[in-house]
Amino acid sequence: MVTPCADSSAVDGGAAPHRVVAILTAGLLASGAFALAGLGVLGGANASVCGPGARVLQGLPGPVACVHEDEPPPGVDVTERVPTRELVEREGASRMAYDAAEDLGVPSTPAANASSPAVTCDGDGTSGYRVQAMYVVEAGATNRYTSLLSSMKLWAAGVDDVVNRSAALTGGVRHMRFVTEAGAGGTCEAKVLNVTVPAGSLSSFGSEISAVQALGYTNGARKYLMWTDANMLCGVASMYTDDRDTQANYNNGGAPQYARVDNGCWGYGDGSYNHSVEAHELLHTLGGVQNTAPNHSAAGHCTDESDTMCYKDGAVTMRQVCPPEREYLYDCNTNDYFSTYPDPGSYLDTHWNAADSRFLIGGGDGTGGGTVGSPTVLGATIGVNNPAVPGLSTQVEVTPALPSGRTLTSVRWKSSRSDCVFSAPTELQSDVTCNASATGSATVTATLVDSTGAVKSITSPLTFAAGTQRPVSLSLSVAGQSGSTASVCTGAAFPVQATVTDVASGLPVKGLSVTFTKQTPTMTAPGTSGSGATTVSGSATTNGTATVQTTYGAKVTTTTGYAAATATSVVASPGKCSPVLTGSATASSVYYGDTITVSGTLTRDVNGAAVPVSGASLPVRTSYVVSGVTKVLALGTAKTLADGSYSLSVKPTVSGALSVALLGSAAYDATSAALGNVTVNVPTTDLTAAVDKSDVGYGDPVVVTGRLTKTAGTVTSGVPSATVGVKVTAPGRTATVVGTARTLADGTYRVSLPLRLSGEMTVVYGGAAGLPADSVSLGAVVAGTWSTAVTMSGAPYSTGFQLSGGVTKTYGGSTVPAGATRVKIYFTPSSTGVPVLVTSATTTTAGVWSARVYPSVSGRYQAVVSGLVGYADSSSGTFSVTR
Fold this sequence. Notes:
Layout: E1 23-27, E2 40-42, E3 54-58, E4 64-68, H1 84-87, H2 94-103, E5 118-119, E6 130-138, H3 145-168, E7 175-176, E8 180-182, E9 188-190, E10 192-197, H4 205-214, E11 222-228, E12 235-241, E13 257-262, H5 277-285, E14 304-305, E15 319-320, H6 347-350, E16 360-361, E17 379-384, E18 393-401, E19 408-415, E20 421-422, E21 429-433, E22 441-450, E23 455-463, E24 472-478, E25 485-489, E26 494-502, E27 513-519, E28 527-533, E29 539-544, E30 550-556, E31 568-575, E32 580-585, E33 589-591, E34 596-606, E35 609-612, E36 617-626, E37 629-639, E38 645-650, E39 656-662, E40 671-681, E41 684-691, E42 695-697, E43 701-712, E44 715-718, E45 723-729, E46 735-742, E47 748-754, E48 759-765, E49 774-784, E50 787-790, E51 793-797, E52 800-811, E53 814-817, E54 822-829, E55 836-842, E56 848-853, E57 859-865, E58 874-881
Parallel strand pairs: 1-12, 6-10, 6-11, 11-13, 14-15, 25-31, 33-40, 42-49
Antiparallel strand pairs: 1-4, 2-3, 3-4, 5-9, 7-16, 8-9, 12-13, 17-18, 18-21, 19-22, 20-21, 22-23, 24-26, 26-29, 27-28, 27-30, 30-31, 32-34, 34-35, 34-38, 36-37, 36-39, 39-40, 41-43, 43-44, 43-47, 45-46, 45-48, 48-49, 50-52, 51-52, 52-53, 52-56, 54-55, 54-57, 57-58
């Protein structure tokens, strides 16, 4: 007998307690005829296959079926019979399912929120795979079918609402396919059968299944939802542990399945975060939650709250992942058991997905009243044209699945092999080419980012074909020329390029080793002239030079995948060349320090064909006139590439004529190209400044702040790392620098400086190349004279006296200690009356001082502050001594 467990733990994190149900799982090892009787519950060693807290149920197809006992909703005693009057007041899941979906961003009309027993009509209401609702009562007990029929139809409609609202979260449509009968106004309602079973049949789930089977309810195209008028448990259902992603999944009509809900748990789902028990149990019969799901629990549930199917059913850790409203709907984050649009390549895309059940309208292939849904998270599918031939390109592509309103912002391809190269690494479709030595397998990964910043990475194997050696062809060019001979420039470097092509496909081969040779007339045999591996273009290159006729050759090293190619050679004939230089500049008027790009080509004519000159140095310069004298300013040197092109970014600093030149040598006749005149404009500078105080006591700090900017046309920017000086000009004197500051990256500066000079304050920027000087006057500042006050007292000390006191200074109504101030101590003997300086002391930061004196005659001591710049003189009272 299945007995209810005592109320135990709540969900982790303090979430609202759940209505918890029992689940039956069956291990799918083999199919067979469904037993018509004799179901029973066993314990002992046989129960170990079911996991902690579960027991084996015999008599179902497949060798193992398990019952897991759980707790009822908080406050519900499943052993107490619920009065009819209370049951008819329970609304089921309809209203809360709609409200939850609305809160989660799936709107519904107010009319749709009205409670109604109507469910979706489909076909003749009977044919095909369907849920059959049943009221089950024991013989001899009170039959409440007539009193509760309308309520059970309403609860069935609530289950349909849970299914449809959950599907809407991923953009799809699903409805529970009930066995139906005609309802009011041409609608359809779930047909609820009135089933009476022998007394004692409802004592357990197994005995009830046997009893209804004996009455003929054994149709494999049915899932039987049994409102069981008993008080033994809350809810229980049959589910097979079959996670195959196929319509042949055993939960999809492989055998009749049963869901039982006792009267204590009927009609929930209307609030207090108690979801529909009927929706929970039917989802089990649809195949959820499989024990391979990402967030599976110990026994057929999930651990990522909130969710109709999630609760703590064993030694698992619960996590609050989704909002509490999801408690009324299926599958938090739509990644464990129900989604009309699973993320491509995700668990639900490759395993059993209850939304695909043919017991749902729209399930199966998504047609017949349903839709396939739409993505709610960034997803993608990847395709790789496997197997790839090592060294040859193969196509890869990724197809994004973008949620509504989002756009794709970037794509990036990479491979687990460092030698693999993508032809278009930031495009949805690309080719990937790995070295000719590649064997076995690798992976390619596409990483996508959408307009919300969401990132999706998807990986696929990249396998390499193995087979017989493939023939290749080898071609050789010297200085950009093919054929038996090539013209080269005496002593100048030129490229020697070998290109390897797969004969069968005509594609270039990457990663084959090429060895180059050269031979002059005085050499008895060819010598080595370098080696290299072919690139993705199939080419390997070495540099050559020639002052006499030289024969260059190349050969390909044989590998397990590629046969050797016929060696080939070209004779390089040197001579002095007369190249043609072209060029242009991107701008004719710039501001000082701005960049101009100079580009062009260097070619030479060989038998009427333009041949590129590579590796040549081309100085770029500006010619300008000063006082009738032409001067030249070098701006940089460009170098030609293999195709004879060159490009160089330069920063002209004077106006003049731009040009690029090839200097004369043994290899080349001199030539040049005019690039036009360039005008260099000087930006304007603007210095701002402010001082926080203009009148302070001598030496007190003032803070000067501001910004230095430059304006070039319509663009104003800060001048970084510039030195700004702060000067004060006293009347009748030259300016004195009293402080400096360094501008930050945005041109701002700040300097705190002690003010010891009165006069006109000015902030000055001295200027730099291309940046004119500027200054700002801040007006008159005053470093005022402090009035001072000195105190003194004395006390005997050993053979002398300890004198001590303090000095304060006052300016602008503010009095503060005068630290670091020299105090002079004078002694006036009684006999002479003439003061004599005997010692001095310096005040601390607190303005106090002390000194020791050792008088030999009578007289008086006095402390004096005098002769200090910025401080008025003052004297203390006297301290008399008698000797």
